[in-house]
Design goal:
The protein is α/β, with parallel strands linked by helices. The protein is 42% helix and 14% strand. Helix 15 links the parallel strand 14 and strand 15.
């Protein structure tokens, strides 16, 4: 069932001040973002982007920092809701404690709601709008739609996941920003590296990949046959070509795991890599004192993200019926922002769609078992780290747990077929001692991924690159002009 009050709406996490009070230290300050005011209008016009919303943090907040760093991201991660936002937020939190940071990212909603910026960071928001080919493909007449599709699918050098972020507004703003001096540019996500041609070539750049999209494209192609396989292989080639180019144009690339790093070496032929793992705030995510709700199974994640959508459909369609045949009182709870129509359609008397929630910890505390039935995806799953830090027994596919130093049968349980997954969950639900044992081991495993340790190493690496202490000499790298293209007219 759809959780009461959530049908058609999403809880606004910005209203939850508990997250802010518990996340911010006593010396942190809050900075409220508003849309561009009249007194800022002149300044924004000068930046060739009068529609950009700005968060002014005040000169005293960033005074005395040693370097000026520009961070280019796909969104504004305040507060961090998704796994990707959590990674960016915690890395920025440490970086902004030592340096002047300007964050440039897309604003994805049309609302004028205030955003709480919990870090001493200058934030520039660019309202996202689909480029002309995407508008024509979805809104044009039949001829325009077909022409736009052919361009995006066959003529553009950019793979789909990259061309989606085409933004002339952001390109213009970046060109204006390059009149400032930055000691380093940090690019979050490989698809945001499509804007490399608009960045100064003499400033070192670090690409935080999050995922190796080439691997994801390869896996999708291997599952297809016939003409579908041909199309997927073409998309794989486009993806590999793009990621090779942007990685070679940056001084350093960051991966979330040794497994991703090895994959990048294999597919992308690059060696200038460092592993900065995903992490978890172990002081905030802690085991509950109260007992879990019997039979409460939980899945968390951004619920318009295709691998998550596929995972819950697989679980509800193939795994949950096998579980309920032996444990009829089991309920399945899906908690995460932006549930797609396919996810909402899964709601029944025993399947709950909670949508966006202000604090995921209350859902973890109720859960008897956290399930991660992922079949696709990349990077490492912060959902597993969060669950482990909360001391939850976890059942996952191998894909769901890849890249993490968690040991099967000690820190979590792995199952790669529907019957085995169901059997593993049923046995676990009927064995409280095993649940308690897994809970303790999961918490211990999560403690090795505490953000404070990871962010400290990240900051050291970033500082080294910016100050010329890279393992190899810094060279100015030419960016191929066809990496980024503006909308086709």
């Amino acid at each position: 069932m759809i959780a009461p009050g959530l049908a058609g709406i999403a809880v606004n996490p910005f209203n939850d001040m508990r997250w802010l009070r518990e996340t911010l230290g006593p010396t942190d300050r809050l900075f409220e973002a508003t849309n561009v005011s009249k007194r800022d209008e002149k300044r924004c016009r000068a930046m060739a982007c009068s529609s950009v919303g700005r968060i002014s943090c005040g000169e005293e907040a960033i005074a005395g920092a040693r370097m000026r760093i520009l961070v280019l991201n796909s969104d504004i991660p305040f507060p961090p809701i998704t796994g990707a936002q959590s990674r960016t937020f915690h890395l920025l939190r440490r970086l902004s404690a030592e340096h002047d940071v300007t964050l440039l990212g897309f604003s994805w909603d049309s609302q004028d709601a205030s955003v709480i910026c919990s870090l001493p960071v200058e934030v520039i928001r660019v309202p996202w709008a689909p480029s002309e080919p995407y508008r024509n493909m979805h809104e044009g007449n039949a001829s325009e739609s077909l022409e736009a599709y052919r361009y995006l699918a066959y003529e553009s050098a950019e793979p789909w996941f990259v061309s989606y972020y085409n933004s002339a507004v952001l390109e213009n703003l970046l060109s204006e920003l390059m009149s400032r001096w930055f000691d380093l540019i940090l690019i979050e996500h490989s698809f945001m590296a499509r804007f490399l041609p608009f960045l100064r070539p003499d400033v070192p750049k670090v690409l935080d990949m999050h995922n190796v999209h080439t691997l994801m494209a390869w896996r999708r192609a291997q599952e297809k046959s016939g003409s579908e396989k041909h199309d997927m292989l073409k998309e794989f080639e486009r993806t590999r070509s793009f990621e090779r180019m942007v990685c070679s144009a940056c001084q350093l690339c960051l991966c979330c795991s040794e497994q991703d790093a090895e994959t990048a070496r294999h597919f992308l032929n690059i060696e200038h890599l460092r592993v900065i793992p995903n992490g978890v705030d172990t002081a905030m995510m802690t085991p509950a004192k109260a007992s879990a709700t019997p039979g409460y199974l939980l899945f968390t994640g951004m619920m318009n993200y295709e691998p998550n959508v596929q995972a819950v459909r697989y679980f509800v369609g193939e795994i949950l019926p096998l579980i309920q045949a032996e444990a009829p009182n089991v309920t399945f709870h899906i908690a995460g922002a932006n549930p797609s129509p396919e996810v909402k359609a899964l709601a029944t008397e025993s399947v709950y769609i909670h949508g966006s929630v202000p604090d995921m910890r209350s859902y973890f505390r109720r859960a008897s078992v956290v399930v991660v039935p992922l079949l696709h995806g990349g990077g490492t799953r912060l959902k597993i780290l969060d669950a482990a830090a909360c001391g939850k027994p976890i059942v996952s596919t191998s894909v769901g747990a890849e890249g993490l130093n968690f040991v099967d049968s000690r820190d979590l349980l792995l199952a790669d077929s529907a019957p085995r997954f169901a059997q593993t969950v049923v046995r676990l639900l009927s064995n409280p001692d095993h649940q308690a044992e897994l809970s303790r081991s999961a918490r211990r495993a999560a403690e090795a991924y505490d953000w404070s340790k990871i962010a400290s190493e990240f900051c050291r690496v970033i500082t080294g690159i910016a100050q010329g202490r890279a393992e190899s000499a810094l060279v100015v790298k030419e960016v191929p002009s066809h990496i980024a293209r503006t909308s086709k007219v």
